[in-house]
Fold these 4 entries.
Entry 1:
Amino acid sequence: MDNIINPRIEEYMRGLQARHDDPVLLEMEREGAERNFPIIGRSVGVTIELLARAVAARRVFELGSGFGYSAYWFSRAVGPTAELHLTDSDPNNERRAMRYLARAGLDRPVRFHVGEALASLRETNGMFDVVYCDIDKKSYPDAWRAARERIRPGGLYICDNVLWSGYVVDSSSEEDPHAEWTEPSANTTG
């Protein structure tokens, strides 16, 4: 179940997004492919930028940022005078992210936290317009519990990979037991 969307549709959507062929973005996409490093991809990038702009986001917190691909899109949305908090446990990813974002002219709102994502969120004061979750999937429930009181009314909590390459449609999948669907309890809305 590698592709949950027909590859021809993905190709069509990417063609519509050719205006985003910034050389820095293209280099980040090449690095993701060469290192087999999971990035959200162009369609999701455009989507998170649109979502952040839709709520006039000025403060965004990313739980899991890697080398800054999703930050590229959030930074475009929030602008240089906002706050974009990134997290990753690898200091090499911080250096990569800051180099890429600086070259793209998108580094001004960035505050990078090297360390565990949920601890970094707890250590950062205030409310956020968007909290974006892209950490290890078994920690998603803990991430929601940590973030739900930190999102302003009208703000967004966005999770990547919730369709888990299609494994969510097969709860008997032995590929990954964390992919199975569970009903949210009545008290999980925030």
Entry 2:
Amino acid sequence: MGSLIFVGLGLFDEEGITMRGLRAAREADIVFVELYTSYMPGLSLERLEEMIGKPVKLVDRAVLEERDAEPLIEEALRGKEVVLLVPGDPMIATTHVAIRLRAERLGIKTKVIHAPSVISAIPAITGLQSYKFGRSTTITYPERGQLSEAPYRAVEENRARGLHTLCLLDARAEEGRFMTVREALSIMLKLEEMLGRGVIGPETLAVGVARAGSEEPEVRADRVSALLEHAFGPPPHSLVFPARLHFIEAEALMVLAGAPEWVKDWLK
């Protein structure tokens, strides 16, 4: 029986992989990579293959989800050591948890090698305290004209507990669509119109982040109305709705995210 190792690639390009992950890929019999669960704009498959020293097979959503990762499982059942390279940290996406459980049930030994994740990067980039984040959520594109209320509810519930909300933004790699901060804010304002619970408005404080993990991420904290006009540049984008701030968090947003002085009004 072989093994299946999930290796994180980090956030932006192939240099986000750890030394441990790189060693695992170099020692593996076969290496797969998926790039649909998160967008890595700086990643080059050619450079990645040069680093690893062997070919890397690209697999899509259909292989990992609809076919239950059959090509990977079959190789491991033949006694091969298989590596799956994954954007960010491997187990953030539930897809990979399901694959790992299936492999374990079949007697395939699995292992996880971690890497930077947007969940840990956002507090570091913004200066917001990590222990003050509540449940994260995803703002998705409308399905059949319907908007998911889940992100609106998450912000409402977290704020009631004094917790910040990290909003991941929809990424549809197969369609080449990656949600922007502007699109996400527009969706949240539409949800406010629909639900009317006073959670999000033009004056609400929000923080937009673009290209976390790159050499020059774009970070901006301001009113929703101002962020709608801000040029964040290429994706991937993320969005944070802070709750009340500690005074150090307020200072961090001013220094690190260009927040106006009025951000001090959000002190708890």
Entry 3:
Amino acid sequence: MKEQIKKFLNEDQDPKAIEKITAKLQDLLMKNEEVGYIGVQKKPAITVFPDSIVLTNKRIILCKPKNLGLSMDFVDYDWEDVSAAFVKENILGSEFSFSTKSELTISIDYIPKTQARKLYTFAKEQMDFLKTGSLINATVVEEDVLTEEIIEEIETEEVTSFAEIMPVAQADLTNDSLQYKDASELGKDKSLSELSQDELFEKLQNYKKLLDNGLILQGEYDAYKKEILSHM
């Protein structure tokens, strides 16, 4: 028994029918297309050339032998064109059906019940994958755009807020050169000893914001923090 057909013989599929189908499918499968499940008719009377249905990750393929099994007709339907799948269990086997977006309904009868259920499950998984996959992509794109807008808005507000609360440096033009004052000398209209507890806490918070945004170094922040805490 060929290794490639063993995985399709879990529910009493006809080995000869599976072997013939897989041999012919080798020339029909597209790039990156893989067979997921194969269901084979099992009529009450002996059927030498049963119809089969092949489900791949890209389409549904109906296989109908003709000319005493010397040739075979293949009809396929892409998953994007499939709108629904159905299983109807009868006394002798089941009928697996699917409908297309063009309002066609295709059925294959006398499929063993276990095989019909597996066909139905695989079909639902493929349709749900297509449906869910498109929604996820749309959601991700929408969330990315929204996130970028929020980030830009927050960054603009923070920079403006820091500039209003505590300028990092003041510039004086002298002899066409730019001279900066140390940040520790800014915002000291009052000495620390004259500030209330709330004002000291607010000043410490301002320094922390400057540190988080890379406007002062860790060492500078630690010095400011130590000085402020000594007055709290």
Entry 4:
Amino acid sequence: MRSWWMNTTDTEARLELREVAMPEPGPRQLLVRVRAAGVNRGEFIIGGLVKAGNAKALGIEAAGEVVKAGAETRRFAPGARVMGRFPGSLSEYVLANEAEAMPVPEGLSWEEAGSLPTTSMVAQDMLVLQGGLQRGGWLLVTGVTSGVGVASLQMAKALGARVIGTSGSRDKLDKLRPLGLDLALCTRKPDFQAQVMDATGGAGVNLVVNNVGGSVFAECVRCLAFEGRLATVGYVDGVLKADIDLQALHAKRLVLFGVSNKMTSAAHKADAVAKFEQQMLPLVAAGQLRPLIDRVFAFDQLPAARAHMEADAHVGKIVITA
């Protein structure tokens, strides 16, 4: 079968399309024929999901049909439509742990299903499991036009919250207005506190999702309300260090937390899938959570898909179909 890999040096991440052996599922695994897979920025950042000097099969999420099930699997049989965070999913076939697979809701296309798991599960982690966002609360999302940003916007609106989003592109922000973006701030700079405080009546926001990184971290802290929370999920600006206002952290009882799946255990991953399936799949089935797909590329067009992503030309998700 064909499989996309990435070889990294200290300065370069090179794509390679390989011919590899068909994998065989273990007792609690599924062999899935991949129909669609999401493309995620973190996979291509050296020092991110791939360390320099290593080679790694690409892909972290997909949807497809089960073609073979391990002897101890119970939930899914051959022919079932499944989706999930499946490592190595930018391949024609991928192995999936059954505990990390979810059923594809009726009415969801392959492209939608293949691009939903990562961003939506990350959004649930930030907004619900750790962020405690409530109906009527305020959410600020820096880099709101990214895949995670759009998922956070949609989930927040489904929860009944109000959303402020930043982006360097007015055109991109305009595309999110139909999704319910309450306040669109066109900026890439740490200069949005005054507008955020004005919109919230001087109180600040209850939760910040920071997709951008260290260059806006201090400004995000300044935008927080009493007992506000700040989630760090990305650093597309490449700035990995930032000052922390300890006085504000102390006096306002703030919570700062990170969101990553990199070091979680198998049990933690399975628990996250179970919570998402219980809490969020009904919203997906009802049409309240649907990935905003920017563009779909064929399997052999991954280099073009990567270039499109790195040009920051997209709003929402980029998808590869196999």
